[in-house]
């Protein structure tokens, strides 16, 4: 049996050759489509890999998504007053993954039609924590909690989940309106780089206390987790591992596989989780130690094998003005973040630049996904996963079909209750180490927008410093003194407390206001470079040929109807001229 190594170039060529026979029956790509694909892409946006290869690639996207979404309940559930051993913690993860699969499918098929994954996001945690810091939602003292029976403890966290569900669903309707009416392009012309920086950066800065609290459960494990994640994702990112693959007629071939670049978070969690398991088995971590792997074993044993999440599973959502307005901060932050990803993903997938109708549709669909997440009781919204965007750049596979298969896997996993419960067993100290990197990357992502502005300008430095530091001071004080605002109207008091206690909202509004009223040239403010990055004016009228953003069905009818020109989220066409 022959054994030989393949170079990366040979890998790309042989992979495409092996899939050639299986893809002969796929629809023929037009010249316009084929010329859009980059030469180094294994599969472009409209390419359909063989089903078996699609499933393997889809599972890879699923694993990347799980590494990002699993950390959210570790901050959300304590704020809901849930106990560590409550089996419903696993149910919340399963619901998040289930909704992620549904929204991802509709986004890739009928929404923006780019190969992106839509799922839970850290951005919603900031307004969530601000809402739950109100006096009526703060958790009772430990003595009261211990005196409650099981039904009382369940109602305690479910009434808070119903408040979040209503707030998320109601605020997301703003995103739906912004997208499907085309208003997103008009409003976001006022959202400049000096608005983006404080809005996104304050997400990570605000959550640092939660990272510290979680990591402090065992600093040795937390620091080791951070160090290992740094090793895998940065130092060993270009190290390829020979993977044996059997091919008929050629025997076993060893192909290079960038394991550390693709799955740094999952590898880190598995290794450090295993280390905690060894320390648990040898009783280095004594009974009740928060880093023991069996401290929440009841969650796994009590979880159902199969459970289909459904709307209102924790009760009918409750809608309040304070909650709905407060959650708008997360919605707007996610809108801006997704807009920045669309042109990047289109380039990675070898697609045409996204036209305005596709962008409008993408934002509107993201809003609908967040509405569903609220109604289903996920306790979070949806946003474009940056981790999966990075996976496209690494694997050179931008196929829309792969993402659709990934969505199917997510929905399937979402109904297997035991699977979601497994991730709750991850020790807090491991999650704390992941937080240190994850929140730091969110801060860095926000600060990266500074590349567009002139950092030598004292005007810009003043706006930047004030819009980041002032919210951290004022919002912290508001949250610690919830009764400070007393207008005599309880609803108004709660609304102002949530709004003024949400750092990303205060920082974003302050940055936007100052940048638009303090005099400065377009070049100084970064508007010229930012306009090239944000494709809000890149609407075009197609000449009748198919594009990467056409719907899978019904395009012939749309081409005949002239009124589609007035619908912001529908493709627009013009009659062919004589020279076409």
Automatic annotation (TrEMBL):
<keyword id="KW-0813">Transport</keyword>
<comment type="similarity">
    <text>Belongs to the nucleobase:cation symporter-2 (NCS2) (TC 2.A.40) family.</text>
</comment>
<dbReference type="InterPro" id="IPR006043">
    <property type="entry name" value="NCS2"/>
</dbReference>
<feature type="transmembrane region" description="Helical">
    <location>
        <begin position="261"/>
        <end position="286"/>
    </location>
</feature>
<feature type="transmembrane region" description="Helical">
    <location>
        <begin position="51"/>
        <end position="76"/>
    </location>
</feature>
<dbReference type="GO" id="GO:0005886">
    <property type="term" value="C:plasma membrane"/>
</dbReference>
<dbReference type="InterPro" id="IPR006042">
    <property type="entry name" value="Xan_ur_permease"/>
</dbReference>
<feature type="transmembrane region" description="Helical">
    <location>
        <begin position="88"/>
        <end position="108"/>
    </location>
</feature>
<keyword id="KW-0472">Membrane</keyword>
<keyword id="KW-0812">Transmembrane</keyword>
<dbReference type="GO" id="GO:0022857">
    <property type="term" value="F:transmembrane transporter activity"/>
</dbReference>
<feature type="transmembrane region" description="Helical">
    <location>
        <begin position="190"/>
        <end position="208"/>
    </location>
</feature>
<feature type="transmembrane region" description="Helical">
    <location>
        <begin position="405"/>
        <end position="426"/>
    </location>
</feature>
<feature type="transmembrane region" description="Helical">
    <location>
        <begin position="220"/>
        <end position="241"/>
    </location>
</feature>
<protein>
    <recommendedName>
        <fullName>Solute carrier family 23 member 2</fullName>
    </recommendedName>
</protein>
<keyword id="KW-1133">Transmembrane helix</keyword>
<dbReference type="Pfam" id="PF00860">
    <property type="entry name" value="Xan_ur_permease"/>
</dbReference>
<feature type="transmembrane region" description="Helical">
    <location>
        <begin position="499"/>
        <end position="518"/>
    </location>
</feature>
<feature type="transmembrane region" description="Helical">
    <location>
        <begin position="432"/>
        <end position="453"/>
    </location>
</feature>
